[in-house]
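ENTRY TYPE: paired fold submission
RECORD: A
CONTENT: sequence, then structure tokens
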Amino acid sequence: MSSIAKRNAAGKGALFKRMWDAKILYLILLPGLIHMIVFKLLPLFGLVIAFQDYSIFQGVLKSKWVGFEHFSAFVNDSYFWKLVRNTVLLAIFNLMFVFPIPIIFALFVNEVKNSPIKRFVQTLSFFPYFISSAVMVSILYKLLSPQGGLVNDVLNALGFDSVFFMAEPGWFRALYVGLNVWQLFGYNAIIYIAAMTSIDPHLYEAADLDGASRWQKIFRVTLPSIQTTIVVMFILAIGQILTVDLDKILLMYNPSIYDTADVIQSYVYRQAFSSEGFPNYSYGAAVGLMQSVIAFVLVIGANKISSRYSDSRLF
């Protein structure tokens, strides 16, 4: 056996030995890997129906190919721009409030020096993340109910008429964004709090020696130190700009608020799982694929911009 072959064999033997020594770690990794393959990668092959006139009776292999017909039909649909407008507006409002509020909250929590109070506030803010969307919307309905709802009781006590908030198109976006802020701000803040714990304490000591106030330390030390984390989270948020929480929307849905509540995902849901006639799986898959491609392009663009103006990027 040549020296090169011996080295290759020795290298493979060493690799297998390291893998065997770390077998417990690989076993821990296995469930997540299986989940990713079964629920993330394998379903991608089903996207082929977006280019077919798919029939559940004929299956993927025998369904008629129609190319980009469904994509063209969606873009030329008179309802297309209303769906895009509603989706983008919801996403922009979500980005304006859901993204910065956890950063602000994390900055204030980081300034709390009393550890028990700090842990209590973090736990309390994190708790809504574990409440299901169905329960959160039910709580919202109860609070805003025109008969016996706390908010309307207060309005009546102040001399105002009751308002059926859940049936008013103008209130839908504010209520949706408010629910997202309530549910996610504590969870998202953990990422920034974790980033703040890695900041070198000597930076704060140097700032104290220079006579910096708390606000100055926040803007001159803390924020610049977690800039990379903020940029990465912003890029990921940009990727979700055409994605909304469908569960919340469907739970808050009613015909009186379709004008502002109907978004691309709810439209896909109605098309793909229509209760009237046969569901149009191909059309729904085409709309969903188009949305994903646009989101991917936005992520690439945001990543390129961030790499141009800073050292922070995803890839």
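RECORD: B
CONTENT: sequence, then structure tokens
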Amino acid sequence: MIHNNPFLSKTFIKKWLSHFLDDQKEVSFNLFPDLSFFKSAKKLVYINTAKTNTKGITYTIAKEESNTSLKKTFLIYDVHTFFNTQSVLNNSRYKIKKTIQYPGYLCELENFLSVKEYMQKRLSKNSNYKFNLYKRKLEHSFDISYNMYYGTITKEKYNSLFSAFKKLLIKRFNDKQETNNNLDPKEWDFYFDVTYPMLLEKKAALFVTYNKETPIAITLLNFSDTIAFDTIRVFDIDYSPFRLGTTSIIKQLDWCIANGIKFLDFSKGYYEYKERWATTTYNFEYHIVYDSKSIVSKITMHITLLFFNFKNYLRDKNIHKKFHQLTFALKNNTKKTEKTVPVKNNTSPVKENLKELSIFDVKNEHLLKYVYDFLYKKSEKLNDVRLYKITNQQNYYYIKGLQNVTTFMAYNLEE
């Protein structure tokens, strides 16, 4: 069981209901001591509150069902199989049909004294070396700091971080040319509204990586007694050469181990980084609990099961990714706005043909990734670098560090 599950807390459920079920009431049944429900649109199924906005729930079933729960069908989303949900008793008239929907990934931390030990035992020597190298290079080239906002934060600071959080997500998924469900206005408003009170209750946290005063990676975490749930994660794609996401995970694992957290749960959905870091995989299941003595309940169960099995089939065929790409294209009607041509000639241009640019001017944002790529490859520091426009060559730029120089060509097709 997940004890003190943040996604079943009063704060989380109350906020979720206010954002997603304006005119519906929460309903409880003695059959499910841990859960509450609402009626589906067609009134045939009772669905657990919070639906897919949780990162995993567990539940128990009472030994005896009350008359109020007879002849009903219940749909329970995102059942976390690693933490052993109790099944219905054999002599109960209620039965469960389960459908696997997503893989889950989990880091088991309780037997490790440090993140260094975790990495040495979990990762290959080559990966261990590379990941530590990424972190050293990042901290060498930039003025990097890390902060876990957990238990206390001013509302002003919170608002500022969530604004930066959203901008980084938009930037990330514009680059991927995909829609992201978290950025749906209704869903984002919910996360913004619910996270602040949960952070004060120590049921949520924002882990932020800064370059000086600028947030460049943010992770929203939720907490039970022993588990840190990775809820939403993003990093600034301009820092991609430094594998900023990898360093963020290293620092979060370090924090979890130091603070007695037994599990860092990457939750549902496959990403390569989850598979690499996790010690174990599990499944997210949807459970359909139905009255086996009711014809209507049994038919409803079969229809619901067929629907979700079909969705899972489409997901296995990667149809969901194509769908996200299509919806992005329909909403934005844009393509990636840049192309680059690598330049082999690193000879210094004539000084008279150089016009210095401010690296952090908004007009030059499209050039940051090339500056950062230069920093990574040449182990230069951002404070020592100058960026120039080569005035006698269209779309050519020149970067000069303490020890190295390079030229490159970049188009900004938004101009």
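NOTES ON RECORD B: The mean pLDDT is 90. Residues 155-176 form the longest helix (22 residues).
STATUS: closed
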